[in-house]
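Structural prep section.
Before we set up the soaks we want a predicted structure of the protein with zinc ion in place, mainly to decide which crystallisation condition to try first. Input record follows.
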Amino acid sequence: MTINFATGFSDISNQEKAVHRLTGFIQSGNIPHALLFSGMEGIGKKKTALVFAKALNCQTIARRQATARQPVEPCGICRPCKKIAAGHHPDVIVVEPEQSRIKISAIRDLGHTLAVKPYEALQRVVVIDQAQAMNPQAGNSLLKLLEEPPAGTILILIAVNTYSLLPTVVSRCQQVSFKPIPDHALAEYLIQKGISPEKAKILGKLANGSFSRAEDLAGTEWLQRREWVIRIFERLGDDRQGDRRVALSMAFSEMLAKDRDGIVDVLELLTSWFRDMAVVKGGSENVINMDLIPRIRQAAQRCSTMAVLSNIDRLETARKKIEANANIRLTMDVMLMNLFLGFRG
Ligand SMILES: [Zn+2]
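Run finished without errors. Recording the tokens verbatim:
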């Protein structure tokens, strides 16, 4: 995802509550030493952390503070604001995973940096992005920093959830939660990026509340892929295909097994397809794949509600197995066989 260094809080979409809390900290002058931003991937947590770092260091805001309770929108034009926007501020430090891990050495290095005074900042800000990528050793090392917070420094942990962090770390942070982005806001965002309104509406629903996911979907040939997968499933659900369906499901499994990166997407897509079938069976039209309603109806007629629900379970089981590094081909074979039986159920 391209990181857009927003100018200020007003550029952060759909996170009014989080923004309100953060600006409240600045207005009251009562800023916690450690914050934990939690919420799903791709909804603006890191962007907000950097805007907050700007607001804490903005010279314009610092001048205004003398007159109390002024707006705390960073000006974007003073030296600290510009340096933070460019990623060049020596006292705004971002720690990120390397090869999907944050190791103890990274946290120790951070400790050494924080042991000396900030270079120029009013408030030094450390952002630990994807904090769930810390192993327990790194977490314990961070705990020491949280127990004796370095002067003039604010630590911001960013994580998709809190249960994968050490409880002792979580308890030392003030939590600020970020919420999923509504479908319509994702669609508007995609339209601004030049996606046609019709396509943006569908992708907005498929993106599951995340800006970065919406961008990913817009960037790939997602709709073509969906068409490919759903056509296969329409054939699998069609009795007239007879025994050819077994061969088809095995060929599909083989193709999926070759594309490890794409497999979770396909499972998610299939889950949305069966979920939509369940919704239609329940008499509602509140589907995700809303451009496919007639086809969803047709597929739903061929399947019992029980079968649809157990297929959703089977997809979920397969997804968990893949995430736990199970053999992909075997997992897909078993899943497809079960789904296929489900059509008859
Ligand atoms: Zn400024």
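Observations: The chain has a mean pLDDT of 89.
Flagged for discussion at group meeting.
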